[in-house]
Design brief:
The protein is mostly beta strands. It has no helices and 36 strands. The chain folds into 4 domains: 67 residues; 94 residues, Immunoglobulin-like, CATH 2.60.40; 83 residues, Immunoglobulin-like (Sandwich), CATH 2.60.40; 184 residues, Jelly Rolls, CATH 2.60.120. The protein starts with a strand and ends with a strand.
Amino acid sequence: MDTEAWFEWGTSATLATIDNTAKQAFAAGTTVQSVSASIPGLTFGTTYYFRMVASSSSGVSKGTIQNFSTSALRPTVTTLAADTLAATSASLHGEVNPNSLATQAWFEYGTDSSLATPTITPAVAVGSGSAVVSTRADISGLAPGGTVYFRVAASNLAGEQKGTILSLSTSNPPVVANAGLDNIVEMGRTVTLDGSGSTTPFGTITSYLWTQVAGTAVTLSDNTGAKPTFIAPAVPITGAVLRFELKVTDSRMLTSTDNVDITVKWVGFSDDFSTDTTGTYTKTVTLGTFGTFTWDSVGERAQVTTGSDNALQVSKAVLATNSGIFSLDFTPTIPYGTHGGIWVRLVQDANNYYEITNFDFASLGFTPFLPDLAQIIKVVGGAVTDNVYLPQTAYSQNTTYNLGITFSPSQVILEGFGAPVTLNTSDTTSISVTSFEVETGQQDAYYKNFKLLAIP
């Protein structure tokens, strides 16, 4: 007789709750027929129960309940390229398919290419779906300039799966040598080189090495120290550049170099009176009978005292030059008699010199009968060849004048008594200045910073 057959199936061992496959029809006969059916959408790692059922006009017959279990799949994992965040850190990336089971993922990393004993990041849940999920972990504390091996790993109830081992290289930032800023110094001064600004991002700087690579040779106090010193050498009036190279090494044995240029200015003379040097000057009373030149230790300066109808000249030899800048700080304090006065001479000899003269008449209420006394003159062969007058109002008491006299065969410029005053000389005879004279008349005054430098 004609028969229909199908399967009942479900997760109940007694098939109390069932699903049915599609019925299959068989014609009447006595031959055994095979019956099969596909069941879609089963769950991984689950036991299912089933039996065959046949039905004809004679009734329904059910077979013995059988069972089978679906297998569970471990996660599917893929290690992706990493991002290096900094010299000692990175971001690791991977992809995980949980394959429908609750899954956790992590990364393994280390310096061993086989990752036999890796460092393991904390595990994170990536769900229980069947789609690919991205995962990442940030790691730190890596060695700069090294190679790190890593892989993604995941596990679920079916087991653990590890991805392909990849590698990344951490950067190795350099040590940075810093030889300090270029500087301009005066001949004879103590100069300090400064490499203390050198830096290394890891470890410490373990050594400094200074080498002079250009210029007049000098002796460093310690060429392996961070801050060696030297004395600026004698240089031509045009000056000179000394170049030093600093090489630093850090605890990683990385090195770096940097240069610094020290420009040395020619100095024909310099005295800031920070110590008592008044005894080294030649002192001459040029008017009357009295005049003193002493050291004021409190102000670290020299003091001239004269009185009425007296004048004192102090002088000093300098390195010979026909051009330069002579400067001094002049602070008049008390005038005597009819007025106070100052004379500054840049001298080759008694018949060849430059002279700057100024007076203070106003402080004592006098009007000068010779209004052309305050002036710049050039004397060649004992005769005044050129002159220009100064403003009479420029000189008063208890004011510090920073005087600068720039001289050359063709020009003399005075700065410090009011606006700059320029003497353009018609007589361009060269005067070789070998000494200077500062004369103070009927006036008490302080002096500081006698200096002769080259014109920049």
